[in-house]
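JOB MANIFEST
job_type = single_chain_structure
chain_count = 1
residues = 247
[input]
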Amino acid sequence: MLDLELIEFERAALDDVVTPDDVGRRLAQLQLDEGAGADDFISCARGFESFDMAQEAFRAYSIAIERKSDGGEAYLGRAEVGFGLCLIDENDGERSKRADQVIEDYRRSFELSKEHFERGALGLAMTLLLVNRVAECSAWLDEVAAQGARDRSEQTDLLFLVAFCRLFSGDVEEARKAAERIESLQGSNEDSVFINGACALFSGDREEAKDCRELLERKESRLATSLVSLEEQGCETFLNVARAMLI
């Protein structure tokens, strides 16, 4: 989801940028300036992102990497934009090819800067799941979990992906156990309800899925709409889940 405060910050950083054309002109100017640094191009990339211009943002991040190949922030930005492009790509082969680049970018982001590890590690796991590399994702999540203590929010994010990794490896029971662990951390949490709803759809239990949706509606959670979308698409892969969660 777009962070409106971040968008306003990035637009201000572009000297009163108010339109996509302003960002494009700024990018063109920077490309002619041999002294322009990676941060300038990252600012342009975020400006493009604020206008939902993913391809243009991807290009700006790529230029930032060309200017400073050891900058983790540009790799992380390009990875996150690339992940979004994977989500909308209807060609399985092209999606898989793009995902390879996204995975490499996530890895580079936290290899170059430890501060990007948490976001990069979870992004890498989501990308592996997105292209059905479930065994690799499971091994990676185990590696991440072994790397030290996390706060409750970070543990919840990790368990959310563990649940879907288990679900799409065919182990519904282990997926539900991950949901239970989220509940033990966060109480009656909408993420755990959504996971149980997805498990029900995966297993063909529409009655339980309905109960989960109604519970999410009572919580006024946007995941209620996501669960409806997931039922309409079919809960067959993590790609279905990720697209449903964009609703």
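[summary]
Residues 1-13 have pLDDT under 50 and may be disordered.
The radius of gyration is 19 Å.
exit_status = 0
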